[in-house]
Amino acid sequence: MTKPPTVFVVDDDQAMRNSLKWLIESVSMQVETFESADAFIKSYYPGRSGCLLLDVRMPGMSGLELQEYLRANQIAIPVIIITGHGDVPMAVRAMKSGAVDFIEKPFNDEMLLESIRHALALDVKQRDMQKQRAEIATRLARLTPREHEVMVMVTNGKANKEIASSLGVSAKTVEAHRARVMEKMQANSLAELVRMAISANLTLSESKSEE
């Protein structure tokens, strides 16, 4: 059974942590609170779904440093910054680094909850995209070097005759490669194959010349 998403609250102010915990639990969301960035890092493991509600100013590792740590370790959890009035420039910096929102203290409860709902929805979307990319990568790995080359050319708009001329093979051979690419990639149409290529960031420069 899939665990429900968790709202992770990181704030050194115990009263604020308790207030946020009560608010979030009041709308039946799961929440865990941490007094420091280090405490969160020790407890959190990549793969847990949810979002991060993060104070900017904390002793030790700051909110911005925690955000940078997560990015450096490719932990893509949506971040909402909670900030005091004097921290707005820092919050803007956090937004430029990928935070989904920043909420100024004192905040409106419903505004904060709406931001959390948005962040949780974004987390679901990101996880779905990661799953799709992983599946596409698995399918790509089944292609031979020549099939990969043909896929790149096809999805870059090259006609069969152009591909045949470029590779020094017959159009029939290209058609056969193309059919196997469609089968192995489980693509029902050229448009679907193009979407997969875009997701995998395939370009002509990535084509392989081996057969």
| Main sheet strand line-up | 2-1-3-4-5
Number of helices: 9
Largest sheet: 5 strands, parallel
Helix content: 40-55%
Q: What is the chain-wise order of helices and strands?
A: EHEHEHEHEHHHHH
The coarse overall form would be elongated
Number of strands: 5
Structural class of the helix and strand makeup?
A: alpha/beta
Q: Give the low-confidence spans.
A: 204-211
* Strand proportion: 5-15%
The radius of gyration is: 24 Å
Cα distance spanning the termini = 45 Å
| Average residue-wise pLDDT | 86
Topology:
Elements: E1 6-10, H1 14-25, E2 30-34, H2 37-43, E3 50-55, H3 63-72, E4 79-83, H4 88-96, E5 101-104, H5 109-140, H6 145-155, H7 160-167, H8 171-184, H9 190-199
Parallel strand pairs: 1-2, 1-3, 3-4, 4-5
What can you see in these coordinates?
By secondary structure, the protein is an alpha/beta fold. Helices cover 54% and strands 12% of the residues. The protein is built from nine helices and five strands; from the N terminus they run E-H-E-H-E-H-E-H-E-H-H-H-H-H. The chain has a five-stranded parallel beta sheet with strand order 2-1-3-4-5, sandwiched between helices. Strand 1 (6-10), helix 1 (14-25) and strand 2 (30-34) form a beta-alpha-beta unit. The protein is elongated and about 75 Å long.
